[in-house]
Amino acid sequence: MQFSLEQLEAFVAAADEGSFSAAGRHLGKAQSAVSTAVANLEIDLGVSLFDRGGKLPLLTLEGETLLREARSILLRCAELRDRAWACADGEGGVVRLAVDEVVPHELMLEVLVEFGRRYPGVELEILYGVLGDVLGMVQSGRADLGMLVPVGPPPREVPHRLAGALGFSPVVGSSHPLATLTEVSAADLAAHRQLVITSRGGDKAPEEMVFGSRIWKVEGSYMIRDLLLQGVGWGMVADHLIEDDLRAGRLVVLPVVGVFSGHADPVYVLRASGSALGAAGRWLAEALERAVAAKE
């Protein structure tokens, strides 16, 4: 069995166009070339793909089944071709992006959609982490790029660029005792449970931001928000995660005095040291930097 891609293309075109002559026009070939290619494919496969008894060829049951397989093979071949062209053009065959889970999804979506349109042959892998997890993935080579919201600036040996910042506010559920206070002091905060972001590597919020005498360390801002909604404690949460809850009155920004109120954490775009990013990776890094800057 030695069928060719040209035979599969003729088979699919004949099925789609409804006749061998129409398939020939679609493929820019003579009708006889398409008819011969399909006939040879039938010989190679050992089945009849079309019933030629009528005015126009009709797919047999075997033809309908194998048509799906033929389409799949042609699709995979097109993907292989696109991937090869991407590598040959210096785009890079795979780009791996590590993202801090607090980075707004809507900030990334438009960039990723455009990336897929510009570089259809490039494979993209998106990994999520918290705090130092993202830095670790970039340093280890697990990721080519990173979007980092750190507790401190990234090390100098890791190429990085400050792209912007995300705002954070101290919030609490509307049913929590702290929600009734017109002023909240450090002593008030210390008397209640505080939910603090942490990472698998043990990174957490700076000590100067930790006031609670009873701490819950949670690996995930979304879980912290959900726990706050249940009145479990208070915590610092990214502003974009709580906009709807604040408007609806489900969460309340604490009127903290004497220590801190809201603050902004930097967002860095990292590049793996020594990584030769192709055109696709470079475009993605620059587009993400622009997207973060535009959100400020």
TrEMBL record:
<keyword id="KW-0238">DNA-binding</keyword>
<dbReference type="GO" id="GO:0003700">
    <property type="term" value="F:DNA-binding transcription factor activity"/>
</dbReference>
<dbReference type="InterPro" id="IPR005119">
    <property type="entry name" value="LysR_subst-bd"/>
</dbReference>
<dbReference type="GO" id="GO:0000976">
    <property type="term" value="F:transcription cis-regulatory region binding"/>
</dbReference>
<dbReference type="InterPro" id="IPR036388">
    <property type="entry name" value="WH-like_DNA-bd_sf"/>
</dbReference>
<comment type="similarity">
    <text>Belongs to the LysR transcriptional regulatory family.</text>
</comment>
<dbReference type="Pfam" id="PF00126">
    <property type="entry name" value="HTH_1"/>
</dbReference>
<feature type="domain" description="HTH lysR-type">
    <location>
        <begin position="3"/>
        <end position="60"/>
    </location>
</feature>
<dbReference type="InterPro" id="IPR000847">
    <property type="entry name" value="LysR_HTH_N"/>
</dbReference>
<protein>
    <submittedName>
        <fullName>Transcriptional regulator, LysR family</fullName>
    </submittedName>
</protein>
<keyword id="KW-0804">Transcription</keyword>
<dbReference type="InterPro" id="IPR036390">
    <property type="entry name" value="WH_DNA-bd_sf"/>
</dbReference>
<dbReference type="Pfam" id="PF03466">
    <property type="entry name" value="LysR_substrate"/>
</dbReference>
<keyword id="KW-0805">Transcription regulation</keyword>
